[in-house]
Amino acid sequence: MRRAHVRLVLAVLIALTAGLRWSGIDFLLPHQREQDAQLVQHLRFARHETADEESGYVNAYPYVLPYLLRAVPATQGDEGEPKTLEQHLAACSAVYVETRSLIALVSLLAVPCAFLLARRFVPDAWALFASALVAFSFLTQWFAQEARPHAAASAMSLLGVVAALRLRERPRWSSYALAGCAAALAVGSLHHGAVVVLAGLAAHFTREGPRSARDHLRLALPVVLVALGLRLFYPFYFTGTDEAQSTVVEASGGELQFGRHAIALDQFTFQGARVVARTLVYYEPVLVVGLLAAAGALIWARRVPRETRTGARGASIVVASYVVPYALVLAAFDETFERFVTPLVPYVAVTVAWGLWRWASSARRDVRAIARTAAAVVLTVQMVGTSRLALLRARPDTMELAAQFVERELDPERDALFLSGKLELPLARTTDSLFLEGGKRARFFSRWAQYQARKNIAPLPPPRWRMRFLAASKALGYPSNDMIADDTLGFLRKLGPGVYLYHVESARGHRADARVYEELRQHGTLLARIAPNTSGPGAEFAIEFQDPLGAFPPMWPMVMTASALGPPIEIYRVESW
Fold this sequence. Notes:
Blueprint: H1 3-22, H2 38-48, H3 64-69, H4 85-107, H5 110-118, H6 124-135, H7 138-144, H8 150-169, H9 173-189, H10 196-205, H11 220-233, E1 250-252, E2 255-258, E3 261-264, H12 272-283, H13 285-300, H14 312-332, H15 345-360, H16 365-394, H17 398-409, E4 417-420, E5 428-429, H18 431-434, H19 447-453, E6 464-465, E7 467-470, H20 481-486, H21 488-495, E8 498-503, H22 511-523, E9 525-530, H23 555-561, E10 569-574
Parallel strand pairs: 4-7, 4-8, 5-6
Antiparallel strand pairs: 1-2, 2-3, 8-10, 9-10
């Protein structure tokens, strides 16, 4: 392909990916609490010099992304104090949307970097195919719209590997400088970026061209750059304060401590292998099928393609120096989460492209036709799944739909609302829903309720609803969930009649939640059920933004059949207990 055509296709892919990333970027905000949002706390501190200290944001993650966040333009500013409910919701969501937008922007780097990686192994047309698979990756889309750093850090790591490949092919001072900067950025984006250093070392020792002993002096440049990156992007290791851990790594008592993260050495029993496999199957099923095709090409395709990639074997060593150690650590670590798998997506995509290219280079016409058709099907399925996810995130979620039901069917003067602890409605609360007698702030589970309770904001416009969380309460004489479980009906009688909105998935949690659900079904009248899926294996599961914990249905088919994101909600009216 001509270079101009390649650039045009890449530009289109990046534009399409950007459209997907920003479609529904504010999903589930501000009424759903997003965990691991330490980056948001960095932005809050930069904007307002205040943050949730208990979030541990100071030393949770390295500082490449926090530094970039300082340059993010504020979406709330000169328009003055919010007046309408929609303006208040937007103001409460602002720092989350700004943080997510940065993560989405940085994640776009993976699209051109995937092409640069793939072209070492396949022709340009197939490299563009691999880049498209990364652009429309369901797993990457899932996390690229969150305020957590993993999708952005994955792109930075891929950039580091591509820079290492360039170093191997062109072992000049400029290549060493580029590789060092890229590795420093990868290490400074998330801790797992340190694996990129292994790819850089492999590139140095397998570099092309004539060699001499003095060439090893060039290695000092990226080493120094990575060391400077550690000092710049991990400042909490060098402050000497107790809360910031003055040592980079400390091992004691069978535990490895770095920053606020602690890993027990007995957590490496290869339980993570199941999570890695499950994540690929549940989020990227079509790529798993493509991997099987690649395995078949490796084993059974006898005819070597006419166009053999120059230096592909050496490039494979560099790539394997990153992929193999990283994948082994994920497989070995018992606390591996789905989001940890995102850095592997580009390499899976390149492997799929390579396998289909091998089949498409067969001497048999029918095999070539099947391979090209398979490539089209794989890419189409990827596009449909990821587009569906972006579309759902742009629609009202189940809590927003429940709020619409409340506004349409209920009366704020007559009906008291009781919410499961994991639920919140994007509605205005009455003052007595925000403060207890004596002005003490009520117990809150959501950022939206906390926002409304701030004394320095204007009261939200009516209608305002009386809401209370179904939670342990000393004032009611039930200070713990265990006490609620032992006397569920007594607890509910203390709350009184009203409309109860129940998070159905909570019934699988603490026994108190299950007992409350039983009593609601027995004494209440079901007004509405609002859920992502109304039937099938996913009917009782929420579709949110966090890694689902424990057993859960495959996320790709759940999203394809869902009508909305959010938790399954049942709304009951209880006249008396």
